Amino acid sequence: MLAMIWSQLRHRAWRTGALFTAVLLATTGFTVLTGTVNTARLRVVGDVNANLRGAYDILVRPKGARTAIEQERGLVGPNYLSGTFGGITQAQLRAIQAVQGIEVAAPIANLGFVAVLRTVPVDLTDLVDRAKARQLIRLDPTFLADRGLSSFRKTESYVYVTTRPLLAPQNVQQAGGTLRYPDGSTRPDDPRCPLAVLEVQEDGTKLPICTTSVVQPGDGDSGEGAPGFTIVRLLPDGRFEQFGATIGPQPWLVVPVVWWTVIGAAAVDPAAEARLVGLDQALVSGRYLTATDATQPAEVGKSVPVLVADESYVDESLRLALSAVPDAAVADLPGTRSDVLRTRLAAVTVAARGERRLDAAALRGDVSRFRGQALVAFNMLLQSGLPEYRTGSGDSLAPVAGAPDPTRWTGFYRVSGGRFPVFLNDTTFRSLNAVMRGEATIAADPVGAFDPGRLHGNSALGRVPLETYQAPEAAGADAASRTLLGDRPLRPSGAPQGYLVSPPLLLTSLAALPGILGRDAAEKSISAVRVRISDVHTLDEVTRERIRRTAEEITAATGLDVDITVGSSLAPQTVVLPEGKLGRPELRLAELWSRKGVAVAIIEAVDRKSALLFGLILVVCLLFLANATTAAVHDRRRELAVLACVGWPRSRLAALVTGEVALVGLSAGIVAAALSVPLGAAAGVRITVAQTLPAAPLALLLALLAGVLPAIRAARAHPGAALSPQASVVRRRRARPSRTVLATALRNARRRPGRTTLATAAVALGVSAFTALLTLTWAFHGAVTGTLLGDAVSLRVRAVDTVAVAVTLALAALVVADVLYLNVRERAAELAALRAAGWGDGPLIRLVAYEGLVIGALGAALGAAAGVLFLDRLAGGIPPAAYAVSAGAALGGLALAGSAAVLPALSVRRLPLAALLARE
């Protein structure tokens, strides 16, 4: 039998060579590409492991704290802490800490937002005309936020500079309301000119300077109070003496400008925070918090030890327009009542003298400046909720906007004449509640400052929101928004009801909570616990199971909401921010939310993708082998029938066919194993001998699988077929020719449904892989990527996939060409009859080409649909661009089938049509 197998292979050298080439191409490609993808996978896993961990592995929040959007999309919001105030008890914290395998469980108690009253010095020395006896400088402050898109113009203030002597009142006798001055003079305290400073005029008379800062009805409604008024004397020696200042005369004129803002405050466990992020190593001045830093008695009320962030994270700036009041209006100022003065000054036209600009850097938290220029009261807290969203087009998020009600906070902020942070006047995206304790003031006592940039525990790509130390921000999602923002991200303003809010960057110790909130409230004041698990270095299955079991134990022990955040990465969500009341237009933003489980999804997706793409090579090769072997058996049916006549049993007939294809497959596998090492080296991939060992068995298995059905068909050969002429089969199948070439091609495609289906499947597999390859970038912007980690990894895995798809398409083209060539051989007599009926070479060539295009069109349509479905499974969603790409891939598949049909169509010219007709 071996001699006969070898004889058959030699006498059909073209067919043997085609089989050998197909197996060699598939096996070599599979071996080399598998080695390549193993290397690429190691890089992927290495990238994932290098960016595996954020600051914590598990996030524990109060029951029900997870929002609907987070639940629906598998995300953790960037501002998850800003709307959570308490909900986890000290007992639940101890239960978490008792779970085995936890390296650190760091609690954080979100207190809310404290209003910070700071004064910013503004130098006006260069605006003073030293030749004038008296002058009045006007300051018009405008606060800007949202990269300058939102603005609020505050009430103007004035600086009165005089060279005349000034007398300040020493005391007030409440009974008689009499003011007494250092020179012994007195005057009644007039409510229209209260606590007046007297200016000694040129003629010796003393006139009161009635400032504009007297509060009138309606001043408090806007939270602005009355216009400020500063009185300064220019001394004969050129120095400036500012009345009401705590320092003496200075060589320059510097006036304080009030700047209200808000900043988040929270309490932490200092020891746990040091282990989690190295907070103790991030100090830039002062000392670190201790576990015993409780609320302490102070001169007035209590004081709370706090750490202050040396970064404001508040996107606010102040623009001061400076101008000079006309001398005529200033000349009448002494002695003019406050109400009259305000009316008169509001009507004059001032002369612009330039402007000053200050940004949020003036609000940095250096301890010395914070202690000297800031007033923070922990018994006045603002607590905001989380934004609510509506889902828009393309799964965009639209936060629900509301109207501001600034009058609610007028009584809340009675400090400094009832003024409050100006951006409380802007559009609201969060509910806002005031929490005010009726006891004495609880003031912040800054003991140290820290730099959030020095903290550790966050990778650049794989991270969860570390919002205790990071300001949330959102970049423009389209060109118009990026232009409006000046190509800078949107950051929080000093508005706790805004969409983006300042993180808690005033930190105190948990020990201080009873003194701030009361003992009962402090017991259940923890807002979140960030858990870091010990010995997590890679994302293998054992580690993943250990993390999962730890999360389950926390849930069982506490009943709280638990999110596994290890392996997360930031994923942009499109947010359509409605226009604001203070001028900001609508913005489309890309906000980074944390998608959970990205690292696991990437590794699994790479494995799925590679296995499927490389498996397609083997499948298409199997189709080619099955078709070629089946055709060989069909051509040899008379020969097999003769062997059956001489007594060959069915098993031996089947073994003959199986042996032929097995020998070809095994030979190709051995050659493929030998070629894999040098080809891998040429591709820059190290292929080991161990990796080449499966090549021969794999090729043999392919050949045996492809030969199963042909062998069964050979075993069923009937001895009577040896006596029936081969041409009779053709005559039985001949039908009346259709009127058109295309109709004939369609009929021919239906005559061999099995063969047509095989070729269609090969094209469909190639096109589906091609579709997935072309849309791989969009797929990695779905659930698998579209994250910082996924985008970085996706760039590492494309070259291998491209080669795999190219091999698959090449094999698919071979299948189509082989099917069409076999059809031409089988229908040679029919083609001869059509030539005799008057069909020329052109119609006959088109007939074969159209049959190839019919196969290609059907396979391309099925393959494009399958590619889109594969993409959906790979990335968890179908990007809109995938449909356009799949259509392009389908056209490419159609062109591939058309190209594969060229040689079989041209072979019609070489058929001995005259001899075929004579045989008929």
Automatic annotation (TrEMBL):
One Gene Ontology CC term in the entry: plasma membrane
MF (Gene Ontology): transmembrane transporter activity
Pfam families named in the record: FtsX
InterPro entries referenced in this protein's UniProt entry, alphabetically: ABC3_permease_C, Macrolide_Exporter_MacB
Keywords linked to the UniProt accession: Cell membrane, Membrane, Transmembrane, Transmembrane helix
Keyword Thylakoid: no
Membrane topology type: Multi-pass membrane protein
Major localization class: membrane
PANTHER family reported in the protein's UniProt record: ABC TRANSPORTER PERMEASE YTRF, MEMBRANE COMPONENT OF TRANSPORTER-RELATED
Family that this chain belongs to: Belongs to the ABC-4 integral membrane protein family.
Descriptive protein name: ABC3 transporter permease C-terminal domain-containing protein
Source species: Catellatospora chokoriensis
